Known about the structure:
Layout: H1 3-6, H2 10-20, H3 23-35, E1 38-39, H4 40-44, H5 51-63, E2 67-72, E3 75-80, H6 82-112
Antiparallel strand pairs: 1-3, 2-3
Helix pairs in contact: 2-5
Amino acid sequence: MSKQRAERSPADAALLFAALGDETRLGLLQRLSRGGPASISALAERFRVTRQGVTKHLHVLAAAGVIEGRREGRQHVWALNPTRLAEAGRCLETIARGWDDALSRLKAHLEDT
């Protein structure tokens, strides 16, 4: 992975986590992770959302780079983008390390006083 790709902006991370911050979109991601690529019709069957609603959620996820769509005949099939999901994991790990470091510094400071 290039250095530029590893250092995404906070705005890019915000777009990613905003896309992940919706119950229906998380459900769509879970479905795609368990069942593999699927059409809008197949995805809409499992949710209490219209096909148009599912399509809107899929477009939000695609804009954040979490999923990718492709045409297969008359259907649009969606699949996970594991690279982007891994970036989300790395972002959370970086934040967690920052908190761990801050807590360690606080503990050392309190023990020194």
